[in-house]
Structure formats: C-alpha cells, structure tokens
Amino acid sequence: MNRADAFALLTEYVTDQGLVRHCLCVEAAMRAYARKLGHDEEKWGIVGLLHDFDYQRWPTAPDHPLKGSEILRERGYPEEVITSILSHADYLSGRYPRVNRMDKALYACDEITGLITATALLRPAGITDLTASSVLKKMKAKGFARGVNRDDVIRGAVDFGVDLTEHIQFVIDAMKPLAKELGLERGGAGES
Question: Residue 113 pLDDT more than 50?
C-alpha cells in the first residue's frame, strides 16, 4: 500500500476533477492530523485519498462505499483502511462504527473540506488568506454550498474532540500548500 498506487486507483475510478480535488483535500487534512497526533501519515493519507474513490460510479447507498470496499479488499488493502473508509458512511455506523482516531478524523475532515473549498472559490485570494471565521459565516448561510451537511461538520468535530473553529483553521492550513493543484489559488479553479 503506497500513495502512488492509491492515486492510480483513484484516477482509474474517478474522472470528475472536482471529486479528485475533494479526495486530495481530505488526504491533505488527514496527513496533517496524522503528523500532529503522531500516527501513520501514509495510512491516514491513503484513507483520505480513497474514501470516495467509488462515489462517481456508485453514488448512492448502499453501493457507496460498499462497492469500493470490495475493490480495496481485492487489491489487498489492509482491513483497517477499509473499515475506516466504511465508517464515514452514516448509514453503515451500526456495522462500522467510528471507533479510532483515524475513523473520527476522516469523518471530521470529509464535509468540512467541501465548505472550505466553496468559500475559497468566492474569494479574490482563494484559500491563501482564508480564515475559519469566513468559513463559519458561510456555514450559517443555508443556501450556500447546499451539498455540505452542516450537522455532519459539527458532529465530526465533536466526535473527533476538536474545537470547530480550530478544526476549520487546521484543515484550511493543511489545504493551503496544495492551493494551486486544488484550484484554490487567487480566485479559484482555472485562474493563474
């Protein structure tokens, strides 16, 4: 299990560049938390990178992420990685509860990266000067980034045991080094 193989798997199943960027955002946040908490950065990063690799082909429950878990098993990924990915689906929480830090980190990082991305895309400087307070303001606007489940954002931070504002800023800071790759530099995707 390595990052190059995981990225190849992601791009084998995902052609939508928005979804690829989302997976890269979650990977960045997971790697940053693994470093901070003294966990295996490669494993945590791969969990973030692959958590939605099956979503483009199988976007509805129960297929996502169950179809992906079958593919990961066939390819020899560790069960810990697979169950962590399965645990990010609320409808599977009875079978795959979020029990360890990696599971809880994935859930906490998944939805918030979407809200951060949407907020950054509206700003002239993109993510470069984005702060948690700006994201929190946008989070209160019900019509903004409708696909982001605010309850999941809040629950994720609580379950992970982090302050929501600090968590948002931590994830922003984890995403900043990838701003250009993520299309979040100077006003968003497509601009240079």
Answer: yes
Q: What is the CATH number of the domain that holds 131?
A: 1.10.3210
- 187: in domain: no
Alpha helix (H) residue ranges in 51-188? 63-74, 79-87, 101-121, 132-140, 150-160, 164-175, 179-182
* pLDDT, position 190: 42
Q: pLDDT digits over 56-92, tens only?
A: 999 999 899 999 999 999 999 999 999 999 999 999 9
pLDDT higher than threshold 50 for residue 192: no
Sequence-separated contacts (24+) of 100-104 with Cβ below 8 Å? 101/37, 101/39, 101/160, 102/30, 102/34, 102/39, 102/43, 102/44, 102/47, 104/156, 104/159, 104/160, 104/161
Question: What's the Cα-to-Cα distance from 11 to each of 15, 17, 56, rounded to whole Å?
Answer: 6, 9, 11
Q: Which domain holds residue 110?
A: 3-180
Q: Look at residues 56, 152, 149, 62 and name the one whose alpha carbon lies nearest to residue 107.
A: 152
189 pLDDT more than 90: no
* Measured distance CA(20)–CA(90) in Å, rounded: 22
